[in-house]
Specification:
The structure is a homotrimer.
Chain A lengths: L6 E5 L7 H13 L4 E4 L4 H4 L9 H12 L3 E5 L7 H6 L26 H18 L5 E5 L11 H15 L2 H7 L27 H29 L5 E2 L1 E3 L8 H4 L7 E4 L7 H18 L6 E6 L3 E4 L2 E4 L4 H11 L2 E6 L25 H13 L6 H9 L19 E4 L2 H9 L8 H14 L4 E4 L10 E4 L7 H12 L3 E5 L21 H4 L2 E5 L7 E3 L5 E3 L3 E4 L4 E5 L5 E8 L2 E6 L5 H14 L13 E6 L2 E6 L5 E3 L2 E3 L4 E3 L4
Parallel strand pairs in A: 1-2, 1-11, 2-3, 3-4, 4-5, 6-7, 7-8, 8-11, 12-13, 12-14, 14-15, 15-22
Antiparallel strand pairs in A: 9-10, 16-19, 17-18, 20-21, 21-22, 23-24, 24-27, 25-26
Helix pairs in contact in A: 5-8, 6-8, 8-14, 10-15, 15-18
Chain lengths: 656, 656, 656
């Protein structure tokens, strides 16, 4: 078991290779200062070749080998892909699409999470694994399943959904009320009439769809918890987690799940090469926010990211030299307990044979491996990157206070509100214009990130009081509890920035009537009469010179300060003092520059300044407990605070 | 019961709200001079909470409330959405897609119109409603179902289709002949072999598909007639209709259906904001044409349109100030018996919660309600719009002679042929190039509309004799009867303009051979040898300077006058005298300007002039019995006939 | 039976017309010098109106009529479309899609090739036809089925697939190894667990998918062979073939099938009008390559092409005057035994009523028929096209040596490697960037074709030794046998040009590790470390000035000659001497001009010159046994070797 607490390594599947490759891999890992390897993911058909018949020999040797080389194991339960024998024995336990098509094996995630046979088989293999390996000295962390997020609409789900709804709503009458079932004659009179939101003639009921996503999240969480509890029953001290996969299509409420894991762990796959630094910062800030709000200390773990590419519109863009270390270090600076990759050795066959790896198909004699090894040396304090090594090693790993957003790991002064359930609400609704919820949230985060402010991304349950500025972008769904917390925040002196399409519906997607945004009208001192979404390409110039596109509104704001107006004089951006704080409303979709200008003004008014002043675009500063870390994401050198930072590199400054 | 015959109001769903909202709504309606409210649509699950158990209390109160406030009721049967208990009891009565997927409840239109259980349940609820309310003093019009148009491909439909085919074709041998079943070995030997056009490997048989759409239209018409007859059995004087929804995807032959309703009623949802005036004119002219051809007097009713938005490529474009009244009045000028909206009060939840309403989520204190109320005052003769008020009130509502195209409501001098069955034929066929049938028809209508000609849109069964000019665009399918009528029209002195792809196939989609257009070759004096569709972007300049794109042809026209030629000298546009009239042929897709120039020439030659000369683009003139009404659809003022017309407004002139 | 060995004619379906049309058609065919007509395709419902009940009268009269007019018959078995009674009797014998949807009749290809009932019915009708007509004097060639290529995923296929896999792989353990089944836990323990690659949650296994395409090809080949053998059992001298349809979506390995036919026959439908000459040349060269490699003499037959149009993005572009003859003659020059069209007489109804025909809907008095008749006269040696008539008739039809690529029909000096199975491999894989395999192959062929080199397109089994230059574009999958053959080719003095993404995986889609391209690393003397696909629109300029886009690589090539470098100095194009030959590697996707420049250099170095020097772009030269044939595909005249060649025409030169 390594003494270095950092997780540095990758997913490793030695079962796909002859035995001698395993030994080669272990030597290479040692050479690269690997501290942890994730094993066992997708190995069910190896571990249990037929029902109840186990083959642990190979995994014994893998774990022993890791231990002998001083490498910790992140041991996965293999339940994300039942073997073909499972389908054969339980064809009814596979998932169905909305249209009733049964999805068979031949890929991954081929199960219905609510099928009793699947749950029983999963629990059994997890239990057997725990019994065998819970005390194995290599095992450092348990990794239940993989990237929960599979949809299903089958009859098992229908039954479980009804039970879940009964618990949530109590009576059919309350369900009808919550779902506005009078619309289109959808009033239920018997729980048995309720179905998953399967294929239907025309638009579905948004409340029905939203509850189904909540139900799927809870179903998967129950499946996770079952395995976690089985492991802890054998080894109460075991650390257990699962790897979160981000994306609007995943019906998993990660803020809620974070309370059920011992360490928040995320996989991160950006969608564009140029967007990778900003997207990575957002994901890391979100993971830290989940961790803190769930009562952990704000630290978390980057469980997977790609070594050498970013898939952009179907093309694997190659990460240029230096980017491997730079992105890994940026995650560490934001509180990750390590940098884990998918995957160690590129598979020769299978669906993901072209996913990049530390050891590619050509073997270890490739740039990626060399960069990875150099990063390992750096992280082990032996490396050739002295500029941030000392700072980094001074405090082995930052820790924060439990329950507060990772104060110790670069506690921000500005927070961005991010609620995945709100994203589902948006996705389930038929809005006046298309809205990319997470895209809007990320655009506000990016504006702050570019200007170098210390930022957190926080879920609705986060402690808000210590932030000077809180930005709430497009929070379409706000619960009564959230509304109260936001009001308290401002009353107590907080500076709240709310954008269009926030506070519109309650938790059941019912519009809060009386004038938009129903939940925040009083707090903001405004009343929106009409939405006025713009067609693609149309732009409006405000009296400030700022540009808006996509979304505008018609509002009244008697007695409230107006910061920007539409061409016809109507209010576009407003400011109201409330209690000891202020509440801003932004009724349109500002472009990036305008967003940045607005935020600069608001932050300046609250005494919030960038971590370092006058940073060039593309140079990132992150405040860590042992000083400021710098990342030059550009293609040219920059001198920051007197230090020359070569293109594509990272460096640390003495604590500010 | 109001004395004002106009229908002015909206769909109203008080059952979605607490009782006190109903009273608020009634007061607001009275304030806005509402004369009619559509109630009961989609209320089945409220009216019959479980099979055979009824709850009429709420509807009693709604109808009584309307009556007390002097507002008429358009009372709907709720059969467009069976309640969830219906699915539970009759899962086999729900629709199936082409691929066999059963579509479940959770939306609207969740039924198979040919399922006996659905028909029985529908007839029962309609009968019970009629028995209870047929003599209620508020009930002014019955509104059966809602927007018929649901497809289904299930076994109920298969059986009904066979019966329908047997009646239509008589024998399997005749079916094989009509469907050209020898192609691809589709010869039937037993009625039992015939299926709906379900999912298949490759291209389907166009004749099969076309007959299926006819069959669906007739199936739905039978379902409508059943309910209508049940209502009339109780109250023989009841006025009964259903609201037509327009669109190429709807398998409903509205010309045929118009004979079965007491008042032609349409819903109209344009597809672009800028295109709304022209699209509204087309829809209104088509409704008037259906009414007249079906033996009514040419009047009709705009049963639904959106108060405040036009959905354009997924974005709700906001109707600017003034447009609400302007578009409503334009419909009235074209013979609508009123202006009804969907909907009165915006739903807080449900799939269409974001559809705009007279009373929006903010309540009545919004621009839309204020504009609606002002329109109500105007229509009631009390309003602040004196410019057309006097003219409007002089003749409370225009009436025409039964059987002729609404002569009294602005009888046109130019007619445009529009046959929805032809549109289905085009949609079912695999043409040499894509063709948007209705788009082509609308482009010819729009060209005439822009130039200010008095236009009607007429189905094939219309009385043609009184039109000076008849335009037949892309009438791909012409029956023998239509061919004879067109010939008679010209013989008797009519001026016929036929475009490319007209008269190509018979009623069974069999090409009329011997040279295109087989049905009209002799009448036009031409023979088309080859089609020559152009790729997107390609343009041909005729010797007249006119531009053609999309479609050209190679034809011979010995001894016929040539009005325009292709660059290589071939004939593009021809003119032939025949009997007392003339027949023009346009072999290519002219651009808008060229179409207008051509029509100007033809109209001038027949003595047909615009309603007012020299109208600016975007200013519309409609001839009504009490004078010409003007509509300024532009963003600037215009002076017309000495009267200043502000931007976005409407006005009336003294009878010309 | 005509003495002219050429096949000149079309698909003919007199069963769709009254009897008198048949006589008209025969007279017209005679007038146009037609030598062959394909009959019986899709006539099953006429031939066997109900199970076991036959009606041969009409076909007797058709064949007798052809014979009386001296026209040969290409007699088809009708098994591509079972009649509706077949569905009625055997609903389980129709194909299922991946998602389990059963596809019904109403189109063509409505069967599962592995359904016993379908196979039995097919064999029976083929046998009965053979017994009746095998000795009919008109029958010149048997045409089994039509355009094999239908996918199915049903349980019949599942069973047959398992049998096929067992024969291919022997044991489940070997299957797991071949399919890399450890990835995502897909390890099988029982053959019964193996399914077709049906709908699944996420990415499928490429090896599974590839084997399924191979299996479908073999299934269809078995069905073909069954019918062929039944015919030969009756008439051992019968010539039997089927018409290949080309396209990446067709799971038919035409190189393999070519060994099972007596004459390779293809249908050819280009995808763009301007691209038709190059696409036709490629298809013809591929057909000749299949013929030669399969042990035939390199001749083949163009069984179908469209008389008057090319469908381009859904628009039927009209072939301009002259193109009908020009394209037919270009096929003949490349070894086709004739020029057959789909179809003779345009169907009045049915799905393909708008497919162009020799006798269109207007009848024979159309340009297409006149051009066809003129071509017939030319081919019969009577025509008005003396420029190539003499040369053409001098050698009635070119013949080559069996087993070598059609030496007698314009044996090329440059070969382009084309392997449809490789295309399936690419289509089944999830590559680092999208790759259009056939598009890349065609781009190399087109570069050579434009420059006028004598080219063959060869499958992996071709005799390679006699080619001076062999281009292997994007040969992602290379078997061990192919690798050995390529090495031998170079050793023996060949000049091999290999592009990026060649030699990457073995026959089971397992990456050959150790550095790309694993199969050819040593031969080429290079080692690729990383792929670097470029995003759309990005371009790299090599030090030669050549442009690359789409794909680049990072490679090392110690001691190997470098022909072009990337901007950072890395090797882009290399050359290595090996044995008596040389091996070039092109690591990027060059644009057309750069490809041509590179090939010019390589050809020049091997003494390979264009057929005629300095041909203008769009003028094509084909070397035939009786001289060079010229085709002017441009819109202007060109003088070639002293002869004036009008726009759009073809001509022959004396043997070079």
């Amino acid at each position: 078991m390594p003494t270095n607490p950092l997780f540095f390594g990758a997913d490793w599947n030695p079962e796909q290779w002859p035995e001698h490759v395993r030994d080669t891999d272990l030597a290479l890992m040692r050479e690269a200062r690997v501290t942890a390897a994730t094993v066992g993911v997708f190995s069910w058909s190896r571990l249990e070749p037929s029902p109840g018949v186990y083959d642990f020999g190979w995994l014994d040797r893998v774990l022993d080998g890791l231990h002998e080389h001083g490498i910790g194991a992140v041991l996965a339960t293999p339940t994300a892909s039942p073997p073909p024998w499972f389908t054969q024995a339980h064809p009814g336990a596979l998932a169905k699409r909305r249209d009733g098509v049964r999805l068979v094996h031949g890929s991954r995630d081929t199960y219905c999470v609510n099928a009793p046979a699947y749950r029983a088989a999963s629990l059994r293999i997890a239990t057997v694994l725990a019994e065998r390996y819970a005390r194995h000295p290599a095992v450092r962390l348990w990794h239940v399943h993989n990237e929960y997020g599979t949809w299903c609409f089958c009859d098992h789900c229908a039954r479980a959904f009804r039970t879940w709804l009964r618990e949530r709503h109590g009576t059919v009458a309350k369900l009808n009320d919550a779902w506005t079932a009078d619309f289109w004659s959808q009033r239920y009179t018997d729980w048995a009439q309720v179905l998953p939101p399967r294929a239907t003639q025309y638009l579905g009921n948004p409340a029905h769809e939203l509850d189904y996503r909540r139900f799927l999240s809870d179903s998967m969480l129950a499946a996770y918890a079952e395995q976690r509890d089985a492991i802890k029953a054998v080894a109460p001290d075991a650390q257990v987690t699962t790897n979160f996969v981000l994306g609007g299509w995943v019906p998993v409420d990660h803020a809620r799940w974070s309370r059920e894991v011992d360490l928040v762990a995320i996989d991160h796959y950006p969608s564009s090469l140029d967007g990778t630094p900003a997207q990575s910062a957002f994901a890391a800030d979100a993971a830290r926010g989940w961790s803190a709000a769930a009562g952990h200390d704000g630290t978390w773990l980057l469980m997977e990211h790609a070594p050498a590419h970013v898939t952009e519109n179907g093309v694997q863009r190659r990460k240029p030299p230096g980017m491997l270390a730079r992105i890994a270090l940026a995650h560490l600076a934001r509180g990750s307990q390590g940098a884990m990759y998918f995957q160690w050795r590129a598979s020769a066959g299978g669906a993901e044979q072209w996913h990049t790896a530390i050891v590619g198909h050509p073997g270890p004699d490739i740039r990626v491996y060399r960069e990875f090894r150099a990063l390992g040396e750096t992280l082990a304090g032996e490396g050739r990157a002295p500029s941030y090594r000392s700072a980094y090693n001074k405090v082995p790993f930052p820790t924060g206070e439990a329950g507060s957003p990772a104060a110790g790991v670069g506690r921000g002064e500005v927070a961005v509100w991010f609620d995945e359930v709100c994203g589902w609400a948006v996705g389930a609704s038929h809005l006046p214009a298309p809205l990319d919820y997470q895209g809007v949230v990320e655009s506000w985060h990016r504006a702050l990130w570019r200007r170098g402010y210390p930022i957190d991304v926080v879920p609705p349950t986060a402690a808000l009081a210590e932030y000077r500025v809180l930005v709430v972008p497009a929070a379409y769904l706000l619960t009564d509890e959230s509304v109260r917390r936001l009001d308290n925040y401002v009353q107590a002196g907080g500076h709240l920035v709310v954008t269009y399409l926030s506070g519109i519906v309650d938790e059941h997607l019912r519009v809060r009537t009386g004038g938009y945004p129903g939940a925040l009208r009083e707090l903001l001192g405004i009343r929106v009469e009409e939405f006025d979404p713009l067609p693609p390409g149309a732009v409006v110039t405000l009296d400030t010179g700022d540009l808006a596109a996509g979304w505008t509104e018609h509002l009244t704001a008697p007695g409230v300060e107006v910061l920007a107006r539409y061409p016809d004089g109507r209010q576009a951006v407003t400011r109201r003092e409330h209690g000891a704080g202020t509440a801003y409303y932004v009724s349109c979709a500002l472009d990036d520059a305008a967003t940045a200008r607005l935020l600069d003004g608001i932050c300046a008014a609250t005494g919030t300044v960038p971590i370092l002043p006058h940073l060039p675009d593309g140079v990132e500063a992150v405040r860590t407990p042992d000083g400021v870390w710098l990342f030059n994401h550009t293609d040219e050198p920059h001198t920051i605070a007197g230090r020359l930072l070569a293109q594509g590199t990272a460096a640390g400054l003495a604590a500010a």
